[in-house]
Amino acid sequence: MLLEALASLAGRADSRGAANPKEPHTQIHVHHCPECEKSHITTSRGETELTPTEYEKLACDARVATGDGPNKSAIPPSTRRRVLARDQHRCQAPGCPHTRFLEIHHIIPRSKGGTNAEENLTTLCSACHQRAHDKQKPARGKNHQAGAKLKNR
To answer: Over the chain, what is the mean pLDDT?
Structure first.
C-alpha cells in the first residue's frame, strides 16, 4: 500500500510537465544497505522502513545508482515493448485475463542473478505482481484462479 500511495502522489506531480518517454514516470528514492538488507525511504515526515517484499518489488524495475559505472539495471523500453507484445498485453498468471495495469516481472529476481533478458521477463497485472513478490499465489477473485502458478518462459 505504501508503494501505491507514493506512486499516486508522484503521478500527480508528474502530470504537470511534459512526459519524457526515456525517463521513468515515477521516481522513488530508496536507501538500501546490502550488508544488513534494510531499506527505507525518506519523506517530509521522516524515514519509513520498507519490508523486504516492498524493496524487491521496487528493485524489480529500478535504476540503481552505485557510483561505479553506468546503470544497466532498468529494463530498456524496447525490451519492455517486446515482452508485452510477446505476452499479447495480458497478465501471464494462469486464469488471469487482465489487460490493464500491466507490469514486467523478473522470473528469476535480479537479486538472485536474474537478468533483463526477455526469456527471464513476464507480464503480470499489478495484483498478480504484488502477490508474486509477496511469495503468495496469484490473486484470487472474480478474474483469478486460486492455486495457479506463474508461467515460466
So the answer is: 75
